[in-house]
Amino acid sequence: MPEPMLRRKPREGDMDRGVASHGAARIAWRAEGQGPAVLLLPSLGRGAEDFDVVAPLLAAAGFRVVQPEPRGIGGSAGPMEGLTLYDLAGDAAAALAAAATGPAVVAGHAFGNWVARAMAAARPDLVRGVALLAASIDTALDPAIRASIDGSFDPLLPEAERLGHLQRGYFAPGHDARVWLAGWHAPVARMQRAATAAADAGWKRVAERVPVLYLAAAEDSIAPVPTEARLREALGPRVAMVVVQRAGHALLPEQPAAVAAALVDFTRRMQV
User: Fold this and answer.
1) Tens digits of residue pLDDT in 148-161
2) pTM of the model
């Protein structure tokens, strides 16, 4: 039997909610906890709910945890064409400014790592440090892996075929990929890919700007664990790596406690 993945619904009574303005976009956000801010940015074509197990663990550790929805998901809306990563970083920055006071540790999961890096470049006043979770440090992917990513989005495929794509691309062996059958937003993924292609390369070397935690998943087929030398080459000198065992690219539903513990340790060190 596959190992079940933990998923938790938002704790509505403990949440603050709002909508931030960024140009023509309106970005819905929710936040919980009090203390130094942590901003959580989800993966390609997926929403804030992916952090719904990790977020309360961070709040309980003494942080103000902010979860914006990407434009095109939930209550977030705005133009979906003619964008760059810097526009998406501006969305996240607007949500942070509305929900918290002061700069944050910005944690981006998978595609969200590119938005986090762009935010550090465009809004350094709001970024204390950056955590990259199961992050592709380059934008090029193996075509076979990209096919599994695309197959995960396709609602016309039989469920068994989609599960095969999800298992191959996102989950460590023995973990139940059904937890990610829902929650995909193909138009949002297309917008995010186009925004990435339209951005310059100035966002990439984030560890030249701020301290960076690279949280790798040991069994990640999309973003295999890099060497520390490769991390420094791609990101800059101020990067440290932690490897989470028994996790693939999905990471958050697979090992939420390990993710939260690493983020708590990194964020506390950013306060010193």
Assistant:
1) 888 988 888 999 99
2) 0.94
Which value, in Å, is the radius of gyration of the alpha carbons in the chain? Answer: 17
pLDDT value, residue 58: 98
Q: How far is residue 121's CA from residue 134's CA, in Å, rounded to a whole number?
A: 20
Q: Nearest 5°: CA angle at 40, between 250 and 239?
A: 80
- Residue 155, judged by CB atoms within 10 A of its CB (0-12, 13-18, 19+), counts as exposed
Cβ atoms of 73 and 91 closer than 8 Å: no
* Residue 10 pLDDT: 47
Residue 227 in tokens: 């060497």
Look up residue 157 and give its amino acid. Answer: L
* DSSP symbols for the chain: -PBPPP-----GGG-EEEEEEETTEEEEEEEE--SSEEEEE--TT--GGGGTTHHHHHHHTT-EEEEEPPTTSTT-B---SS--HHHHHHHHHHHHHHH-SS-EEEEEETTHHHHHHHHHHH-GGGEEEEEEES--SSS---HHHHHHHHHHH-TTS-HHHHHHHHHHHH--TTB-GGGGSS---HHHHHHHHHHHHHS-STTS-GGGTS-EEEEEETT-SSSPPPPHHHHHHHH-SSEEEEEESS--SS-TTT-HHHHHHHHHHHHHHHT-
Q: For residue 1, is pLDDT > 50?
A: no
Q: How many CB atoms lie within 10 A of CB 141?
A: 15
Residue 152 CB coordination number (10 Å): 26
**Smallest Cα–Cα separation from 54: which of 99, 95, 7, 108?**
7
